[in-house]
Amino acid sequence: MASRLTAEREAELYESVLDLLREVGYDALTMDAVAARTRSSKATLYRQWGNKPELVARALRHNKPSALHEIDTGSLRRDFHELVGLEDDCKLEKDSALMRGLMHAVHDNPDLHQALREVLIEPEITGLDQVLRRAVERGEVRADNPALPYVVHMLVGAFVARQLVEDKAIDKAFLGNYIDAVVLPALGDPV
């Protein structure tokens, strides 16, 4: 996307989109509301992002603290814990609530589903695959480990299950413990 917006302006706009999503949800979010909140024109929004699903997906992508594939500490356990360390509990809670709301909207909005897959989910899966591939290359995880294709499911499950099962917000302590107790043992407990 060729952007005529400054990086600062784009970041401000994305944060406003996420704030609106938290306030009103995906279905009630409109390009008019985004334009008003960000003091932009709808024409600018459509020119830059094309549609609401793309704008929402890009805002979520921008909100990610780091690209997973960039984390390489030399140890799978440290890679996972470094990823957790990039977050803070308040942001994790806000983001998991936001994602739960979007998951509901995905069922009724195939364009949103497609935009989230292309902009947010597939890059994360690719990054996770690279982290896991490096662990296999270092000999930490067997290449034929049957849990490898399910690591992303385990991690997503942690976000969904904590609120559902325990009625508690996701936090760094839970994620760190979950990685050590569930994910790493499933991969042969790499140290």
From TrEMBL:
Per the database record, which ranges form the HTH tetR-type domain?
A: 7-67
Summarize which parts of the chain are annotated to bind DNA, as ranges. 30-49
**Key words, A-Z:** DNA-binding, Transcription, Transcription regulation
**What PROSITE patterns does UniProt report for this protein, alphabetically?**
HTH_TETR_2
Q: Which SUPFAM superfamilies match?
A: Homeodomain-like (SSF46689), Tetracyclin repressor-like, C-terminal domain (SSF48498)
Q: Does the keyword Transcription regulation apply?
A: yes
Q: Does the keyword Transcription regulation apply?
A: yes
Instruction: Give the protein's recorded name.
Output: TetR/AcrR family transcriptional regulator
Per the UniProt entry, what species is this protein from, by scientific name?
Streptomyces crystallinus
